[in-house]
Write a structure and sequence with these properties.
By secondary structure, the protein is mostly helical. It has three domains: about 60 residues, lambda repressor-like DNA-binding domains (434 Repressor (Amino-terminal Domain)); about 110 residues, Tetratricopeptide repeat domain (Serine Threonine Protein Phosphatase 5, Tetratricopeptide repeat, Alpha Horseshoe), CATH 1.25.40; about 160 residues. The protein is built from 18 helices and no strands.
């Protein structure tokens, strides 16, 4: 707690045009006493603080420079979160006070735990990390009182694993990830740690391969979604760059020119790239990209392969199929993406070109 009593005595005295000597006469103390108060060398006793507040026509709180914090649970938890994000060691003392006041509130215990672990990792202090882990364990039975809908027991056990990781205890870390690997959420983490430690069980490749497969979908959606946001705001160049990079990223995982499930996703993504050029009124580019998308999709439909195990770098010993809701065929998926942009003129261009290309193949 930071008080500003010395500064406030000085500022109030000066606001009234008084010297230290004049203030000492008013209060019946020595000039030296006033000097020490203003220099922060000593603190007046409580009755004198009350008398000064009365003389300066202010409250004792104002004279002290103290403003009461919002100590309700939600506000306290939010402050602890900020302390964690800013790695402020001051938060440790507030966490302990909050834990004494609200020992059975999930948000307080959880935020305190992460505060200890974060600062402990930053300072490389195993005692702080261990204290955080102790709090994490005690927060698990309190999950029913949580306010944050993004937190469940899988998240908590992931944070628990991190606490071991920050202490260099990789075996304990991996053990927790494996035990609580709901939906393969920790596949990449497990595989990475096993690889870093020579993978004595030989499991790393499978974990990393499935981790990569599970990661592809959110990356694609994030990149295309952000591209759409840019396009909707008229930032066509930025949107086009995002889509092109998404396409290049996907093509990186193809082994060769053999049709592969990624062709469905790439051909649909190419439509969005064509739409950017359509908005730029670049007719030749639109036709070329749509033709390439149609060709790629048609080739896939001739010999569809939905096994993601055939991707480059993937090492799994079982069939792992991937599906989507874009359309029954890859060409349907392409047309569905055209329709998604809800532009009648763009749809006319696509239908005209598709009809022309289909007639050529008959």
């Amino acid at each position: 707690m930071e008080l500003k009593l010395s500064e406030n005595i000085r500022s109030n005295r000066k606001d009234r045009g008084l010297t230290q000597e004049q203030l000492s006469e008013v209060l019946g103390v020595t000039v030296g006493a006033v000097y020490k108060w203003e220099a922060g060398l000593s603190v007046p006793e409580l009755p004198m603080i009350v008398e000064m507040a009365d003389f300066f026509d202010t409250s004792v709180d104002s004279l002290l420079g103290y403003s009461m914090k919002d100590n309700r649970i939600a506000a306290t938890a939010k402050r602890l979160h900020v302390y964690k994000d800013t790695l402020d060691p001051e938060g440790i003392s507030e966490a302990e006070k909050a834990l004494k006041k609200y020992p059975h509130d999930f948000d307080i215990v959880h935020e305190s735990a992460n505060l200890y672990i974060s600062i402990g990792a930053w300072k490389r202090d195993p005692k702080l990390i261990s204290r955080g882990r102790e709090l994490l364990l005690s927060s698990i039975p309190l999950l029913s009182s949580k306010q944050d809908g993004t937190i469940n027991d899988t998240v908590l056990y992931g944070e628990l694993a991190d606490s071991y990781y920050f202490q260099g205890k990789w075996k304990e870390c991996v053990e927790i990830w494996k035990e609580h690997n709901a939906g393969g959420i920790y596949n990449a983490d497990i595989g990475y740690e096993l690889t870093c430690h020579e993978d004595p069980q030989g499991d790393a490749s499978g974990y990393l391969s499935y981790g990569l497969i599970l990661t592809l979908n959110p990356i694609i959606k994030s990149m295309i979604g952000l591209a759409m946001e840019h396009i909707f705001h008229g930032e066509l160049t930025e949107g086009g760059v995002l889509i092109q990079n998404c396409i290049d990223f996907l093509m990186f995982f193809k082994k060769d020119d053999t049709p592969n499930y990624l062709d469905r996703i790439v051909s649909a993504s190419m439509v969005s790239l064509a739409f950017v050029h359509f908005l730029k009124k670049e007719k030749e580019q639109v036709e070329k990209i749509l033709f390439d998308a149609y060709t790629l999709a048609s080739k896939f439909d001739e010999n569809p392969d939905y096994d993601t195990g055939n991707l480059r770098f993937i090492r799994i010993n079982e069939i792992c199929k991937a599906y989507d809701s874009f359309g029954e065929t890859a060409v349907d998926a392409v047309e569905g993406t055209v329709r998604h942009w809800r532009d009648p003129e763009f749809m006319k261009v696509w239908k005209s070109l598709r009809k022309k290309w289909e007639n050529k193949t008959k």
